[in-house]
């Protein structure tokens, strides 16, 4: 493990040992990881939409910011939901629903949207980041984004608020700085959002192989499915969007 990886700040351990301490750096400054390779907004695989100004671009302009990079929609599974199938041989993803943030030839990453982190509260996390909350915000959920780097934070959100490092993915935003959390709690943030710790990651060609093996089905997302709090039914609701008979899941192809 290189020196930068050795310096990864384990937020979960710090919360248990130092409740009340403040972390004054932004989330993305705390970590150096493989996710950085996938989330670089200036990568050749990331394209900026052209043509008329979209609602997202208008939001960026109204905030006096550069229009963020937008992941192209012509290839791969970007911006879709993956639904774990019974034959997936990984108990960590049993009945998981994953929003795919990036899928390219050199790998993929996504955020699990139907699991919660145990042993940590939203209020504790915000206090560590120096963000003051009102009483109604303390009980918001903290999502288990995936098993890779469980101390790294991401905000998946609607595109009505963007930051300089926001990656736009088919009508959704992914941001990894505390600026967007502060904006949320000032009433200036995106209308819909989830905070997740960790992510699901795949190496080159790995996700494509799992799709061919029918380990996942893919479906287009909707805001209710991504952002609502009915976690126990998200897997069933995602499958229902496909019109697939549960009894036939083992024989369905990976792409819907």
Explain how this protein is built.
The radius of gyration is 18 Å and the shape is globular. It contains 9 helices and 10 strands. 36% of the residues are buried. Strands 1, 2, 3, 4, 5, 6, 7, 8, 9 and 10 form a 10-stranded mixed beta sheet that branches. The longest helix is centred in the first third of the chain and has 8 residues, at 55-62. It is α+β, with helices and mostly antiparallel strands and 256 residues long. The protein has one domain: 3-Layer(aba) Sandwich (VC0467-like). β7 (167-169) and β8 form a beta hairpin. 23% of the residues lie in helices and 21% in strands.
SSE order and pairing:
Blueprint: H1 3-6, H2 11-17, H3 34-39, H4 55-62, E1 70-71, E2 81-84, E3 97-104, E4 107-112, H5 122-128, E5 143-144, E6 148-157, E7 167-169, E8 172-175, H6 178-185, E9 193-202, H7 206-212, E10 216-219, H8 223-227, H9 234-240
Parallel strand pairs: 1-7, 5-9
Antiparallel strand pairs: 2-3, 2-10, 3-4, 4-9, 6-8, 6-9, 7-8
CATH third-level topology: VC0467-like
End-to-end gap: 39 Å
Shape: globular
Q: Indicate the CATH class.
A: Alpha Beta
Residue ranges: pLDDT <50 for 5 or more in a row? Answer: 1-34, 41-74, 250-256
Give the beta-strand count: 10
Q: What's the mean pLDDT score?
A: 74
Query: Number of helix segments?
Result: 9
Secondary-structure content class: alpha+beta
> What pattern of helices and strands is seen along the backbone?
HHHHEEEEHEEEEHEHEHH
